[in-house]
């Protein structure tokens, strides 16, 4: 069982207007340390066309933490896969082998891709990602120079002197048929946003079908993302949930996963074009409450631009809900709160130990 938090480089969320510089070094260090102290295995370092460079953020924070891993969002197409392979392998060596992972994002917003000069359409981006990951992994593993001549990449006599000591995990996000196809082929872990159990099970089946079609016998792990809202009692949890919702609405939808000045523009662009966002909005239209405690109004209010469905209840209720997802094959959870520091501490104190102890007891 792996738990991933979400890092940001300034204080802010959908209910806390961003404050301070976009890259607040002191805050970022404290926030990474809070995740490490809470017992998270990794933190996701996000990416947009206006955000700080994720590799550099991870490198700096790996140096100020001891064991915390970094899942670095990475868009294929902006640097050559051979260069990316060397960059990630170099960081893995400096951070300590096993602390670095790649979260492959083919791109959910045409407009945000264009800000960095990428005008390849969505289907083309997935073809490019397919080829990119092939060259990336081959660069890490080839013991002899190799050639690759494809649609997007043409390298001759490629080789590297820096390789990871152990395989760097490749995560993959998406909810479209193309995402299933490419992620099913390449991903070590396929990442989904938090949908009801039945819908999640259908997505897992699609990922596994794509993996088998690609000739894989070992299936990718599955990550699901949620926004837990905890309370000492059920009543307190729901009171807090409605307060969070009211504050999201009052803020005009917040900023989704982004805290830069282009947050709202990015949010609306993503909702229009991203299949995952469209699925969350469709789930919200079907009803506010699903399964044990999956609550969708936070997704609807924020435009579902990122992981935005909540699990509401006491730590015991939310832990039981997470274990329901473990029961259908989920191996990893990405958990992010609306009150950044307080929620990270509460998850580490009250939630993660409950889930881990139950999973460990089943394994034993």
How would you sum up this structure, described in words?
With 364 residues, the protein is an alpha/beta fold. It has a single domain (2-225, 314-363), classed as TIM Barrel (Alpha-Beta Barrel). It is built from 13 helices and 15 strands. The strands form three sheets. An eight-stranded parallel barrel has the order 1-4-5-6-9-10-11-15, surrounded by eight helices. Strands 2-3 form a two-stranded antiparallel ribbon. A hairpin with a 3-residue loop joins strand 12 and strand 13. The radius of gyration is 20 Å and the shape is globular.
Q: How large a portion of the residues is in β-strands, by DSSP E?
A: 15-25%
Largest sheet descriptor: 8 strands, parallel, barrel
- Kindly report the CATH topology: TIM Barrel
Strand order of the largest sheet: 1-4-5-6-9-10-11-15
**Succession of helices and strands:** EEEHEHEHEHHEEEHEHEHHHEEHEHEH
Distance between the termini: 14 Å
CATH H-level homologous superfamily name: Luciferase-like domain
Fold blueprint:
Layout: E1 2-7, E2 11-13, E3 16-19, H1 25-38, E4 42-45, H2 54-64, E5 69-74, H3 81-95, E6 100-104, H4 110-115, H5 122-141, E7 146-149, E8 154-158, E9 170-173, H6 177-186, E10 189-193, H7 197-213, E11 221-230, H8 234-250, H9 263-273, H10 275-286, E12 289-290, E13 294-295, H11 297-302, E14 310-313, H12 315-326, E15 332-335, H13 340-363
Helix pairs in contact: 1-13, 2-3, 3-5, 5-6, 6-7, 9-10, 12-13
InterPro entries: Luciferase-like_dom (IPR011251), Luciferase-like_sf (IPR036661), SsuD_RutA_monooxygenase (IPR050172)
Enzyme class: oxidoreductase
Protein name: Alkanesulfonate monooxygenase
């Amino acid at each position: 069982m792996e738990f991933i938090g979400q890092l940001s480089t300034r204080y802010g969320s959908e209910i806390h207007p961003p404050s301070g510089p976009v890259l607040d070094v002191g805050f970022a260090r404290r926030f990474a340390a809070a995740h490490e102290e809470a017992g998270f295995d990794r933190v996701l370092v996000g990416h947009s066309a206006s955000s700080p460079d994720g590799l550099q953020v991870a490198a700096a924070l790996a140096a100020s933490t001891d064991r915390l891993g970094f899942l670095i969002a990475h868009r294929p197409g902006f640097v050559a896969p051979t260069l990316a392979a060397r960059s990630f392998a170099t960081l893995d060596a400096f951070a300590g082998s096993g602390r670095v992972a790649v979260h492959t994002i083919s791109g959910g917003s045409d407009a945000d891709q264009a800000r960095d000069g990428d005008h390849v359409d969505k289907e083309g981006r997935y073809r490019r990602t397919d080829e990119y990951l092939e060259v990336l992994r081959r660069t890490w593993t080839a013991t002899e120079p190799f050639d690759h001549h494809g649609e997007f990449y043409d390298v001759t006599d490629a080789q590297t002197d820096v390789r990871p000591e152990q395989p760097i995990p490749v995560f993959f996000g998406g909810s479209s048929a193309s995402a299933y196809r490419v992620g099913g082929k390449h991903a070590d872990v396929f990442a989904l946003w938090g949908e009801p159990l039945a819908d999640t099970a259908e997505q897992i089946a699609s990922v596994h079908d794509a993996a088998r079609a690609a000739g894989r016998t070992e299936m990718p792990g599955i990550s699901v993302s949620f926004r837990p809202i905890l309370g000492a009692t059920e009543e307190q949890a729901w009171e807090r949930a409605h307060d969070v919702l009211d504050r999201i609405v009052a803020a005009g939808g917040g900023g989704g996963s982004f805290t830069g000045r282009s947050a709202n523009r990015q949010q609306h662009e993503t909702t229009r074009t991203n299949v995952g966002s469209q699925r969350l909005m469709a789930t919200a239209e079907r009803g506010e409450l699903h399964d044990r405690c999956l609550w969708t109004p936070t997704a609807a209010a924020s435009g579902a631009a990122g992981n935005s469905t909540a699990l509401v209840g006491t730590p015991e209720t939310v832990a039981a809900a997470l274990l329901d997802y473990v029961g259908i094959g989920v191996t990893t959870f990405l958990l992010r709160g609306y009150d950044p520091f307080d929620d990270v501490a509460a998850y580490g104190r009250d939630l993660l130990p409950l889930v881990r102890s139950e999973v460990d007891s089943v394994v034993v």
